[in-house]
Amino acid sequence: MPSAVDSVGLTPEQLESFNENGFLVVPNYLSAEEVQSLLTTTHVLLENFSLESHPMTRFTTGDDDEKTKHVGDDYFLSSGNKVHFFFEPEAVAAPEDDPKAPPRLLKPKHLAINKIGHALHSKSAPFEKITLSKRNAAIAGSLGFQDPRCLQSMVICKQPSIGGPVPAHRDSEFLYTSPPSAVGWWVALQDATPGNASLGMWKGTHRGKKGGHIRRRFVRCEEGGGTTFITNEGPALPLGKDEDETEDGQADEDFEILNVKAGDLVLIHGNVLHKSEKNTSDKSRFAYTFHVIEGAEGWTYDERNWLQPPEEGFSRLNAV
Fold first, then answer.
1. Using CA atoms, how far apart are residues 263 and 279, in angstroms rounded to an integer?
2. What are phi and psi of 264, to 5 degrees?
3. What is the pLDDT of residues 122-143, one digit of tens each?
4. How does pLDDT run across 156-199, given as a tens digit for each residue?
5. Of which family is this protein a member (predicted)?
6. FRET partner for 33 with CA separation of 20 to 30 A, picked from 119, 209, 232, 303?
7. What is the DSSP string of 189-246?
8. Distance separating alpha carbons of residues 46 and 87, to the nearest angstrom
9. Would 183 be classed as within a structural domain?
10. Whole-angstrom Cα distance, residue 79 to residue 152?
11. Distance of alpha carbon 204 from alpha carbon 244, whole angstroms
């Protein structure tokens, strides 16, 4: 079945839906062969990475209490141009008889990983082929990007029974540009259904009248390493949006749990509120996601963001 996106990008109807809701489901974005290629690559990565020098870093979003706050370590902060592996909190435990001993795995390593990131688009040929494509450059052009730059690519595994929840957040809190510009590409590699920890979206919450302002940011600590959330003192809405719009906030009727099939793409506005629940099913829910920010003059990628550009800069979609 042909993709719903061609070289001219999104249709006017798709763009209208994205602008109205803050997200868009694009069916059949990847072919069955493309999905299988990424799944095969993911399984090879999961089977073959070494535990010998791994710091056993667990992944959480930073909203957790101090005892699980691991995201400030070098392994996380240096992953922007590498392929690193992050464990589910429930898959790792310290030996009870010696708290200083290395953590131990409670599951086989290929069933213990929360995500693989954050430079699959530049360090893995199959992911690079899917990501840095004319198709994605065309989509970015439809969304108004002048110089789209790709960053933070990762496979999110959502392992059976332990795949951790992702609390409500806005992506531009983590990848802040001034003014905000981030858009997420979220691609289902396995079916993501309401019973399998699929995405939950608050429709329209990217707009100022729905509380879509970026009020906080996830940054590197100025002293002592680590990461933290701070109050955003820069522009809170994308260019051209009214910063003085009255905030009515999100409502229960705005919330929608998506039913996404393997190969479908979900485009996610950087200001829209969304989340996913813990995977309590007996099936994994693999997804590949990456983000695009504006690299043109007039937008600044903040130097305090947790993820910083490699020496060569973030990958340019328009260069393909």
1. 20
2. -80, 150
3. 999 999 999 999 999 999 999 9
4. 999 998 888 899 999 999 999 999 999 999 999 999 988 888 99
5. Belongs to the PhyH family.
6. 119
7. SS-B-TTTT-EEEETTTTSGGGT----EEEEE-SSSS-EEEEE--S--S-TTS-TT--
8. 11
9. yes
10. 9
11. 17
